[in-house]
Design goal:
single chain; nine-stranded mixed β-sheet; 4 helices; alpha+beta; 37% strand
Length: 256
């Protein structure tokens, strides 16, 4: 519904990495992305609906500064709440440091890969439970009720994320929120559905809670072309021919 072909949404992401073998093991064994293709310097993890996460090894890149624009997190959307419960049990068994939040519209687990790229694994609440005030949606960052979530785990041994897993949204570290808002409205047709003190904006198509978020909580500079981490974000927009743009934070996007 919110990620169908006629809705504008993120479908892929490229990440520059320094240790392809280590990151491949992490996304495969820890995150649970089982379907991937590997070449000499790249690994592409395939999700449902032709969504993907591509890792590109490039030893000429350097570690980004903390205040540089780039990826805040890539958000992986699971089909069922029990899938999130099963993932939580799995990730806890792996001893991975994580965060967990209830956003009213969704429940989410947060972690980072070994090179610091942010990852959110989440499940949506039914959209009938979302609260809208005109064109604004109610979202919060509340503690996740872990006990209640674990009550719905399947009891099956974790064997990777479900086959219907997709990229649900992308959250970017930005240089300027208002400029990013204007850019993504003009180029992708996204509308702002939530804002937080001018430091964060949440945007979407088709009344989703957000397909894209941007914030300046940490970032004070545009993205540097010579750094590891975010390389490109891919979006689907059915009425557009394929084209590339660079947003105001120097983040490359491709519209398919």
């Amino acid at each position: 519904m919110f990620h169908s072909d006629d809705v504008t949404h993120a479908v892929g992401i490229d990440l520059y990495v320094s240790d392809l073998e280590r990151l491949t093991r992490f996304y495969n064994e820890v995150i649970g992305l089982k379907h991937f293709k590997k070449s000499k310097n790249e690994v592409v993890f395939n999700l449902d609906r032709d969504h993907f996460i591509r890792l590109i090894e490039d030893d000429s890149k350097v570690k980004p500064s903390l205040d540089e624009a780039g990826l805040f997190h890539v958000a992986i959307l699971l089909p069922e709440r029990s899938d999130l419960a099963d993932f939580l049990v799995h990730i806890n068994d792996k001893g991975i440091q994580l965060g967990a939040s209830d956003h009213l519209v969704s429940e989410a687990i947060y972690l980072s890969d070994p090179e610091g790229n942010g990852i959110e694994i989440y499940v949506d609440r039914d959209h009938s439970q979302w609260t809208w005030n005109d064109d604004s949606i109610a979202m919060e960052t509340l503690p996740l009720d872990v006990e209640d979530l674990l009550s719905v785990q399947s009891g099956n041994q974790f064997d990777g994320l479900p086959s219907s897993t997709i990229i649900g949204h992308i959250h970017l570290k930005a240089y300027n929120v208002s400029e990013m808002n204007q850019f993504y409205h003009e180029h992708l047709g996204f509308n702002e559905v939530a804002t937080y003190g001018g430091q964060a904006s949440f945007m979407s198509d088709a009344n989703y809670h957000h397909h894209l978020a941007v914030n300046t909580w940490q970032s004070k500079e545009i993205r540097n072309d010579n750094t590891l981490g975010l390389a490109k974000v891919y979006f689907n927009r059915s009425d557009f021919e394929t084209m590339e743009h660079t947003d105001p934070s120097n983040i490359c996007i491709q519209i398919n």
